[in-house]
UniProtKB/TrEMBL annotation:
This is Arabinose-5-phosphate isomerase. The keyword Nucleotide-binding does not apply. It comes from Desulfovibrio gilichinskyi. Keywords: CBS domain, Isomerase, Metal-binding, Repeat, Zinc. Residues 38-181 form the SIS domain. Belongs to the SIS family. GutQ/KpsF subfamily. The lineage of its organism: Bacteria, Pseudomonadati, Thermodesulfobacteriota, Desulfovibrionia, Desulfovibrionales.
Amino acid sequence: MTDKQLSDFIKRGREVLAIEEQGLAAIRKDLDLNFAKAVEMLAGCKGRVIITGLGKSGLVGRKIAATMSSTGTPSFFLHPVEGAHGDLGMVRPDDVVIAISNSGETDELNSLLPAIRSFETKIISITSNSKSTMGYLSDIVIESKVPCEACSHGLAPTSSTTAALALGDALAVCLMDHKDFNSIDFKKFHPGGTLGRRLTLCISELMHTDNVPSTPDSSPLSEALSILDKGKLGLVALTSKENKLSGVITDGDVRRLVCSGKLNPAGPAFEVMAKNPLRVTPDMSAAQALDLMEAKEITVLPVVDEEGKISGMIHLHDLLGKGRLKFAENTRG
């Protein structure tokens, strides 16, 4: 291929991505109370969430079902044609069905919905046309109308399927938040995944033990700041005469001291340290430490032994397997 052809492909690729971004912006703007009501209905579901759709919408539905199942919302995909030939027997009154069709006029799907309604099963539809047959047969309609498809002829489902997929992700995440689905829950549903395996490890297997940024709390603040900078973890631990953790100073603490005009490098570090900071022990699980970090919105913690002496440091990225992050926020408890 010529350089011009390669350049044209890049240009066209960017155009497609821009069109899909516009589609997502449109559905984000149009998101209304129906979306919230759908989350409420799904959160109150006593059975399973059943996703159904045909063609490209069906492929999107399979992904949404997989995402929901892996994040605490029991879900499975029902092919509308198979449903009409016996698989409808899997549907129960306490289930909730999410039907996906851009036009809302997919015959195979719409012929199935009245049978589902006869079970008194609730139906949520994701469609660009709330006044369609599917919309009429649904209890709640989430509109997914995009300005246009990215396809040059406006025929191949592109922007519309991206929009439906994003709405499914939005529903799944809202349900996660509602159910307080956390990292330990994630580990239960992903025992074979890299993160799942990592979260079963103990802090002692992941923590930093070499050149741990620490200094006596009687040290000048200037020395503590120098160690904080060299440690590149965003935190310096301060220790008592017995070498027990007495406090910490973080990047955030330094920023606040500078902004308030109270930074005195010559003064003792203990005057500005955060006393009795959060900490973890070497035998704690990575999942427990991750939950603590998420709850307190912090990214690094000191690790202490049974006597309260510094054993190491653990960073959020150590837990997630992403390597060392060089900036951290407050660790005040």
